[in-house]
């Protein structure tokens, strides 16, 4: 007699795995893998993306000049080439002037180095009551040949790395220039291609934002160029009066660095002229610093508001915060494009905001018009109103 099979346990429908759970797990894993792959791709392409961003904003700066030439019947590619040649010649001239100044100073330093060493040894003997000589220092320095060889090897390795960095920097500049040329020359075609992917109601907003970006970026760079020229001319006159050598390259250095290096450019620009003025006299250094400080105040309160009033209307605090944020995100490139980006965003958002009149209040005074004392009739009327309220 066979024994019956034990009854199999049945799983209740509520205890079964939902049919959508495996698919959801696979979808989540696929999303995680996709995000990881996207992050890795962006990290590998970070340099190229930064170059494209900088090229895009440079193209926005070139747009007004190229458009003006194109409206006169010139082909857009030729107009872009002419604008590039002008900018290249200006940059090459600036580099040549500053480079000649740097080379002359290095040659002068090498020529006077023995005198500087003798003066330094004499000062050390007087100050610390020692009897050092240049020959003893040379013997102690070159006694250990292994140290000297190791130092020479380190310098050679750094020179090789520095050469590779220069080659990489030149290639990166060429890449930025190439994309800038394409973005500028093919600007209308690129905008048509972008708008063709959008519905008609969105195309107007994109073109409007693009136009605001061109106006703000071009206005920012052109206003900075005007301020740089005025600053260079003023400092050139000052350097001539103070008899500071290399007045032309130093004036160009101050004008360009103070205007195109955000936030700290003013302080960096005056260091080189002060060092060169130190070869004349300490009093000349003081006059150079005083003139640079006075001119900066004149520029901040008179020149800058008038020149940038119709180009980049942005509060200094907002500009400073934008530069810090841009530098934190993208380094030097972020600091350079931060102010045009902030001005564009402010103008674009402001075009969609409606502003209302603010009532008179002591917490919100109208600073554009100074408060005036009430006239005689107003005072008499207010006095009569006060008497009526008191009599009640």
Oligomer status: single chain
Order of helices and strands: HHHHHHHHHHHHHH
Largest sheet: none
Distance between the termini: 120 Å
- Would you tell me the structural class of the helices and strands? mainly alpha
Work out the number of β strands: 0
Shape: extended
Average of per-residue pLDDT values: 77
Can you characterise this structure?
The chain has 392 residues and is mainly α. Helix content is 78%, strand content 0%. It has 14 helices and no strands. It is extended.
Write the layout of secondary structure elements.
Elements: H1 21-44, H2 46-71, H3 76-128, H4 134-142, H5 145-185, H6 187-195, H7 200-241, H8 247-260, H9 265-269, H10 271-278, H11 282-307, H12 316-330, H13 332-350, H14 376-391
Helix pairs in contact: 2-3, 2-5, 2-7, 3-8, 7-8, 7-11, 7-13, 10-11, 12-13
Keywords:
392 residues; 14 helices; extended; mainly alpha
Task: Summarize this structure briefly.
The protein has helices at residues 21-44, 46-71, 76-128, 134-142, 145-185, 187-195, 200-241, 247-260, 265-269, 271-278, 282-307, 316-330, 332-350, 376-391.
